[in-house]
Amino acid sequence: MSLLRDFNKYLSGSIILTLLVLIIISCNKDDAPVNDDEPLIRKEDTLKSYSPTVRFDVTGRLLEGKRIDCIEPDYKGNTWIANGKELFHYKSGTPENSYLLDFSIRDISIAGDESLWIATSGGGLGHLTENDITWFTVANSGIPRNYITNVEVGLDGRVWFSSGAHDYGGLVVYDGKKFNVFTPDNSILNQHVIDDIGIDHNGDIYVMTLSKVNKTNVYRISDDSWECLGNEDGTFYWVTVFTVSPSSIIYLVEDFMLSSTLADTNKLFINKNNEWKRLKPDFMKSRLSFFTALKADRRDYCWAADIEGSSYLLHVFNGITWELAPTGLFNGDKISTIETDFDNNIWIGTAQNGVFILKQ
Fold first, then answer.
1. Cα–Cα dist 294/314, whole Å
2. For residue 314, which of 112, 227, 279, 325 is within the disulfide window of CB 3.0 to 4.6 Å?
3. Could you read off the pLDDT of 143-175 as tens digits, one per residue?
4. What is the CA radius of gyration of the chain?
5. 38: Cβ contacts below 8 Å, ≥ 6 apart
6. CB within 8 A of 288, min separation 6: which ones?
7. Neighbour order of strands in the sheet with 311-317
8. SS3 113
C-alpha cells in the first residue's frame, strides 16, 4: 500500500511533465484522415471457478483523494483508471504510466493487443498504444460526432462506440479499416443516442438507446444479427444504469425522475432468457430510489450502489437474496463506478476517495 501512496505523490513530479510532452507531440486531432489499418486481435474472456461468498473486506486502495470516472481491467493484469482528463495504468497492481489528455474521459476499453481505446467528451475516439495516441474525429475520420460517451472492444477485436445526438449519428463500429454507422434509418435501433454498451462472455454486444421518454430499448448484436429485447417502439420510460453479466443476464434501473406522475416509481429489472422481470428489493423504499452504479460480476451477481437520504450504500444480489455492505465502508463516499477483474475482484470507484478493491 505504501508503494502506491508514494506513486500517487510521485505523479506530480517530473515524470508527468515528460509524459505531457509526449502526449502533446502525439495528439494532433486535425491531421489528414487516419486509419490504423491493422489486423484485428481477438480478446480473451476465460471464466474461472469463483467463490460464491460475497466479501466486503477492502484489500487494496489506489489513487486516494481522486474522483474515479471509469476502470478497465484485462486478463493480462492491465488495469486502466480514468479521473477527468487523467489516465493511470497499472500492471498487476504496480503503477506503470500516467497521461493527461485534452478532454475529459467518458469511457475506456482494452483491446486484445493491450492497447486502449478512449471515449472523450469532445476530442473524439482515442487509440493509445505503446508508441502514441491516434485520434479519430469528425474531421479526419467522418464519424458523426466528437462527443463519445462509451466504447467497448468486442471479443473479435471490433471497436463499438457511440457517436450521435438526438437526431443524428448513432452506434459506430470500427473493424480496423473503416467505420460503419448504425442509425434508426439503416438498422433496428429506435433512437440515435446510445447511452451504454455491454458485452457478455460469448462476445455478444448489448446497446441501450436513450433520448426520449418511453423509448429506451436494449438490443443484442450477435455477430451481425440484431435483436430488440422488448418492444421495438420502446420498452422502458428512462434508464439510469445498465449492466450485462458473462452469462447474458441483464440488470437495469428504470428511472421515472422525469415523470410528473406521482404513481410512477423507479424499478429494478432483470432479463434472463429474453424475459424481463421486475426485482423488488426491500431497500427500494422511496418512490425515486436513485442508483449511481450497477455492475454484474463474474458470478452473475449484481452490485448496486444507491443513495438513501444522505447515505451512499452498496447492495449485492446473488440471484436469490440481497446483502448490504457495511455502512461507511468507502469513507461514506458516493460510488461513481464499479468494475470486476478476471479474478472477480470488485473495483469500487468513488467520487473523492479513489479506488477500493474487494477480493472475492
1. 10
2. 325
3. 999 999 999 999 999 999 999 999 999 999 999
4. 20
5. 176
6. 256, 257, 265, 266
7. 290-296, 302-308, 311-317, 322-324
8. coil
